[in-house]
Amino acid sequence: MSRNALYMIIGGLAVLVVVLGIYVYDREARQSGIELKIGEGGVSIQEN
C-alpha cells in the first residue's frame, strides 16, 4: 500500500470522527420538551 493511500485512509477516518462528534453533540444539545406553534393553520403542538 502506498503512503498516499494510507494518508487518504487516515484522513477519511479523521473526517468521520469529526462528523460523528458534531452529530452526537447536536443530538445532545437539542432541548427536549413541547413546542407550541400558533399560525394561520391553527395551533400545533409537537413533542421533541
- Secondary structure class reads alpha+beta
Determine the strand fraction and express it as a percent band.
Answer: 25-35%
In spatial order, strands of the major sheet run 1-2
The major beta sheet can be summarized as:
2 strands, antiparallel
N-to-C span: 48 Å
Global Rg: 21 Å
Q: What order do the SSEs take from the amino end to the carboxyl end, as H and E?
A: HEE
What gross morphology would you assign?
A: rod-shaped
Average pLDDT works out at 88
Q: Share of helix among residues? A: 55-70%
Describe this structure in words.
It is rod-shaped and about 60 Å long. The chain is of the alpha+beta class and 48 residues long. The mean pLDDT is 88. It has one helix at 3-29, and strands at 34-39, 42-47. The protein has one domain. Strands 1-2 form a two-stranded antiparallel ribbon. The relative contact order is 0.12. Helix content is 56%, strand content 25%. It has 1 helix and 2 strands; from the N terminus they run αββ. Keywords: Membrane, Transmembrane, Transmembrane helix. The chain crosses the membrane at residues 6-25.
How are the SSEs placed, and which strands pair?
Layout: H1 3-29, E1 34-39, E2 42-47
Antiparallel strand pairs: 1-2
Give a brief outline of the structure:
The protein is α+β, with helices and mostly antiparallel strands and 48 residues long. The chain contains 1 helix and 2 strands, in the order H-E-E.
Top keywords for this entry?
transmembrane helix; 2 strands; two-stranded antiparallel sheet; alpha+beta; 1 helix; 48 residues
